[in-house]
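#struct-pred
JK: can someone run the complex with adenosine-5'-diphosphate? inputs below
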Amino acid sequence: MYIAMIASECAPVAKVGGLGDVVSGLSRELEIRGHTVEILLPKYDCMRYEQIWGLQKTYENLLVPWLNSQISCTVWFGFVHGRKCFFIEPHSSDNFFNRKTYYGCRDEHLRFAFFSKAALEFLLKSGKRPDVIHTHDWQTALVPAMLYELYQTGGMENCRVCHTFHNFKHQGIAGKDLLLSTGLGKPGYYYDKARMGDDYNQTAINVSKGAVLYANFLSTVSPRHAWEVFNTEWGYGLGKSLYHHRHKFGGVLNGLDYEMWNPETDPYIATTYTADSFSDKSMNRQSLRERLWLRHESKPIVAYVGRLDTQKGVALIRHALFHALHKGAQFALLGSSPEEGINAEFFKLKQQLNDNPDCHLEIGYNDELAHLIYAGADMLIVPSIFEPCGLTQMIAMRYGTVPVVRAVGGLADTVFDYNYSDRPSAERNGYVFYQPDAKGVESALDRAIGLWFDYPGQFRELALNGMECDYSWNRPGADYVNIYNHIRHK
Ligand code: ADP
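RT: done, structure tokens with the ligand placed:
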């Protein structure tokens, strides 16, 4: 099968969060299974160009119709860790992807609508005819609508689309300008609530609703989150439309790229290790302490790695930090927020704790440091308010770091409580709490820290149980191949 991934991120060249990991990891798995995968991305100026091998121009002067005119694009090709990637570079005064940032621009809906359109135009004009186009999140959610409404002819009629929702919080809300720019036009037609008219804002187009209607299959990133979309507020208003199209919607748990995240070969950690040489993990703890100026004492390190977004339970992260210190542990935090207010709050906290030898806050994005934290920490706290899948708890387990999580979304599907799970003890791999408050955090963190101090042998067994779990792309890869085969034009 020939699959084209159209996405706004791909690890490690253009990654903000889990979306980037999923695009690269799933693509690798599909290739291992014998399929051909090509990834289409915007050519951002802020990408990690050193992660691209053999970058070269492959298509010049790709003319993309846009707002009564055309924008000329250069398409580049290069390998990212063996994956075939095409990077689309528009030449216009809009400078859509020369913003020194991936996201957060005022014309966000137009930037990614343009990219979606250019990606389809590139497939059409270069004669590429994927069996399946896999799109991801709102940024590329307009692809299925445009494919159906504008690109049916010219050989594209057999392409099918699978769309994955990684986060329902962002759905792509736009106005009439989006319809006019992309050539979809016909506002009266698209503003219909059965198409892309937003259910809550009469004057808005909801790009994600377009994917719900036009894609041949829809997935979200864990079975629990698929359930939550219908039964809780975490569908952010899209649950009704999805319920209407539930025959083509399902939850597929994300996998982890076991090559990228592998303590046995990881080039970014101080000492590589496996479950059989688990005691070597402690050298990474030492190294992490040196890197973060933490004192060397017999204490566990509790860590947080991730975006500092309200979704992630910012107040609970803060509480976990102080509570861990209170209980005699150390705390390491690596994260950043696109919201100035949240960043400022954590910078203030960093200053306040500057002289504390048991705590370090690194505000920013640092892929290499993230690897060392997963390897060097003893526990990872993930107190999310909602979490479609969550990768950090799975990465932690891969590195023998015990996850302490709130039971939502994919966290509930992957972490099973040491004391209270109904699973056999060999399958219990972490600590789980339910209430999104201080008491909830403490109920799990106290047990984790207590076990580390009082029963180190049992804590080690728990960490090893996590290392035994298979959260690779093996199973979800097979699930996606089944989905693609199911929707493929026969
Ligand atoms: P989300 O997609 O909501 O951001 P996930 O848990 O699915 O959360 O994925 C987060 C991914 O991004 C993980 O690979 C994590 O290591 C990485 N990550 C998040 N924040 C940072 C950061 N500040 N520095 C390095 N890596 C980060």
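RT: quick notes.
The longest helix spans residues 108-125.
The CA atoms of residues 154 and 351 lie 60 Å apart.
JK: thanks, will look after standup
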